[in-house]
## 1
Amino acid sequence: TDITVIAPSNLQHPPDYDPKASDLAAVADADFILLAGFEGFADRLREAAGSDAVVDVVATEYFPAALEAEVLRLAALMGLDEHTAMHNIEHYKEHWDMESQRVQDAIAGKTPVVVSHAFTGVWAALAGLEPVGTFGPEPLTPTKVAELVALNPTVILENSHMPAGADLMEATDAVMLQMVNFPGDDFDLKLVVTVNADILIDGIG
C-alpha cells in the first residue's frame, strides 16, 4: 500500500517524464524500484535507489495469462500472499473475458482487416482479431507503408501514446482507432480494457 508513482499518469507518454529532485529523493528509501524498462529516466532512478533497493523490470502486458504470471512473480519477489494476488488476477480475467465477449458480439458479421502498432496488438486479440501486419514503434518508411497498404487494411490500431501510423493513414481508406495503453489517475487496468473495448465497438461495430 506504500507506493510512490514517479511519472504522472496524465502525460501522453509517461516514460518520457523528466523526474524532479524530489522524485529521485522519494526512491532513496524504497525497498523496490519497479520499471517497465523503456523509461528515459530509468538509469537515474537506479542511481538514486541506493544499494538496498531491489530494482526490477516489470513486463507490461494486458494479456490475462501474461499478466497473471507477472503478478505472481512480483508477489513472490516481494514476499506477498499469493492467494491475494490470484484473487486480484481472477477479477481481471473475468473482466477481460466479459469485455472481449462484448466486443465480439458488437462486431459480429464484420470482417475488418487489421493493421496494428507493435504495442496495440493485444487490443486486436480482445476483439478476437489477428492483425495482418504491424508497424512502429520506429517511424514508418515508404517501403513499410507500401507493404502495409498492399494488405488492404480497413482498421488501423494506433498507439495513442506514441503514434507512428500517420503516413499509413494518409495512404489508405482505413479507420484509425487510437488505442490506450496506460491507465489514468485511478491506475485501474480493468478500466483500460473497458476503454479500449468501447473504442473497438465504436470504430468497428
## 2
Amino acid sequence: MLDHGSGIPIVLVPGIQGRWEWMQQAVDALATQNRVITDSLPSEPGSIASINAQRGFDSFIDWLDQLLVRANVDTVALCGVSYGGWVAVHYAATRPTKISSLSLVSTPSPNWQPPSRIERYLRAPRLMAPVFAASSPFRLYPEIAVAFPSLRKRLRFGAECLARAVTSPATPTRMAERMRLAQQVDFASDCSRILTPTQIVTGETELDRVVPVDSSREYLGAISGSQAVTIENTGHIGVATRPERFAQVVSDYARRTIGVNSRLKQVPA
C-alpha cells in the first residue's frame, strides 16, 4: 500500500498487470496537490489482500474497503485505469457512499467480450506471454512517438518502462485470472446504479491501440450524467506518457465534484 501526499484523497486502481509501480509517474504528479492512496491488486507481491476464490470479483471490493480503512478515510475520489476502471465501476455501484467522484481512464466497454486473441491468451497465459510481450511495443510505439518527439526522450522513457517491468514484473497467470473474474460481472447493470459524478478519460482515437476510444466512451450512455475528457497527444498509457496532464484532469474533477455526490444520495430512488 502507498499513501503519499496531502489534500483530497484519491484512490488509484492499477490496470490488468496489477502493479501500482507501473503508475509511478501518475502517482508523483497527483501527489503534488492531493493525497494519493494506491496498492497493487490483490494477490500481487506487497498487496494488502489476496483474491478469495469464493468472493470472485468481489475480492476487489473487499480490497478497496481494506484500503480505505487503513488510510482512515470515509470518502475518496476513485480513479480506475484500464482494467482498474472495471474495479472502480463495480465499487462505485456497490459502495456509493464511499465515492465522491469516479474517473474511468481508458476502460474497456461495460459490454466487452474477449476477442479470439484474448481467448487464446486466457487458455494458455504462460505459453502466450512471450507473444503478448513482443506485440505490446508495436501497439504502444505510435503514442510514445507522439508524446515524445525527441528520440532521446523516447529511449529514456523506454528504459524507465523496462526497468519498472523488471523490478515490478507482471505475472501472466494472475492477469489471466483477473480477466476470468471480470467475466463474472454485469458491468452494464453496475453502470445503471451509479449516481456518482463520473468522467470518462481517454487518449486520442487514433493513438489508443489497446482499448478503442469508442469502447471506453460507451460509458457515456451507460452512466447517467457522465462526461468525456481527452488527454491529447497520447493513447492508452497517458498515465505514463503525460502524467502531469492526467493529474490535472483527475485533480480538477475531484475538486469540482466535492459535495455533489452527497446531494445525489439524498434524492429518493
## 3
Amino acid sequence: KLGGNGIAICALIEYMETFQTDKYLELCEMLGNGILTMLDQNTGKYYHVLYFGEKERSDFSRKVEYRTVYYDGEATLGLCKLYGLTGDEKWLNAAKAAVENFIREDYVRYKDHWVAYAMNEITKYVDDARYYEFALRNVNENLDKIYFTGTSYHTYMELLMATFELYDRMVENNIMVDYMEKFDARYFIDTIFHRADHMLNGYFYPEYAMYLKKPS
C-alpha cells in the first residue's frame, strides 16, 4: 500500500534522527523508490495498492487505483522526510509533483490532516506562495466544520496543529502571502483551544467508569 510506504519512511527516519544513526537509510530509500513507481510525476497522481502477499499473487502488479485520500498525504510526507534526510532532489521533485496535484484538484475539500503534515514539511524546503496559500486554505475554509463537529475527532486536531506550525513559522520568518488577509487567525486559534477541550469528551475518565456495572 502506498500509505504504508510513506508511514514506514516517517517512522524509520524519526528513529534515525532520535538515535543519530543511519541504520535504516537504505531501507528508506528502497521504500521511497517504491513510492516513485506508484507516482505519475507528470500528473502528480498516485496509484494506491499493489498485489503482494496474497494467494498466488505477489508480483507487485496493480490492484487498486484509489483506496483513501490519506495515502496521498502520507506518501508525500514520506518523500519530504527523505529529502530532508538525504538532500536528494528526486524526492523533493516527486513531492512537488504531488503537491501540484493537491492544488489543482483542490484537496482542501478533504479536510485531510496528512495533507497538512505534508504541506508543513515541504514548505521548509520550497518557498512558494501558492503552497502557503493552499496550506492555510486547508484549515481556514474548514474551520466551521472542525469547530462544530460533535465527535472528538482527533485528526482535526492534527490538521490544526500541523498548520499552526506552518503558520507560526510564516509569522516568525515574516513570510507574507496575499491570502493572509483572508486568514482568520483568531478563529483559527480559538478552534485549536476549543477542539483540545472538546477532545476530553472522548476520554473515559475513571471517575465516570467506576459508576458503571462493568467498567471494562
